[in-house]
Amino acid sequence: MRAALSLARRGLGNTAPNPTVGCILVKNGMVVGRGWTQPGGRPHAEAMALEQAGAAASGATAYVTLEPCAHQGVTPPCAEALVAANIKRCVVALEDPDERVAGKGLKILKQAGINIEKNVLKKEAWRTNLGFLKRITEHRPEFTLKLATDRDGHIPPRGAEGEAKWITSSEARRRGHLLRAQHDAVIFGIGTVLDDDPKYTCRLAGCHENSTVRVLLDTRLRIPQDSKLLKSLADAPLWIVCGADANAGRIHDLEIQGVTVISAAHLNDGRPDLVWLAGELAKRGLNRVLVEAGPAIVSGFLQAGLVDAVQWFRADKALGADSVPAFNDVAGKTLGEKLASGPETVLNAGPDHLEIYHL
Fold first, then answer.
1. What confidence tens digit (pLDDT) does each residue in 90-122 have?
2. Does residue 198 have a cis bond before it (omega within 30 degrees)?
3. Which of 46, 67, 280, 292 is catalytic?
């Protein structure tokens, strides 16, 4: 099952709105087939493993990280495919809460006389598919907060240029691009766009095809027409969340260019309400969203209780008197309380290190 979960994690960031699943078929102590959910959500893991195994699947044990699907979609139900392949046993890490499945897949297997074992490495499987599970049960995606600060939790002031705006090393920045590839979308604000003119694409070698959706919070549609975001629409989708009273002509022009414009139904202090936004992103099929933004948006997500994980890149240096906190005092207190027990994992990132927290 650990091997199946490792396969499942290969699909993080490119299977939405589907979950990412891993499947391994074992017969006589040998792996005869393996698969994981492919980009776009299909083929499913079980279909891949069964195709690889062929006739050897008969009599095998299937290790699956999520209950096999039971509904007819673009592809046939995986539960029925496992039955047709004549497997003898199915070990499942986690039941699927989607009402189209929700025990129906296991029922199909059981009625066919297949032995079933459930809840093997359930916690690990739950964490792997947390985004999908939250979208189904809580109607919001999983949000990961990405921070890059000095050792004191500070960032450069607005307007910093050249080397002054880089806090962490090139190795840490590559890990940051990997995070983008592993999420369905990245959220940021118009302040960052006006200051830095970023692209927010994944530029890690081998991951260019992972078209992370870029979600810009821009209430008054101030995005410059010559911004790198608009020049790179062929590289990755761009969604802009604006206020309901935003200029209709500007909205039309952006949509003509290929931008998806979302009018916020609810605002807080002139900004899109983040709880509303979470629900809207879930409706649009996003499972995993990376928050890679300035202090105001970071603080907003923390204070709204929407942060599920933190990936904190911390440089072993202090930026000095001109630096500013990466979040406001209230959010900092909230974050400090949540992270008090310390990181689950600490990884090296060149001269810097990455602290990983799951909340």
1. 999 999 999 889 989 999 999 999 999 999 999
2. no
3. 46
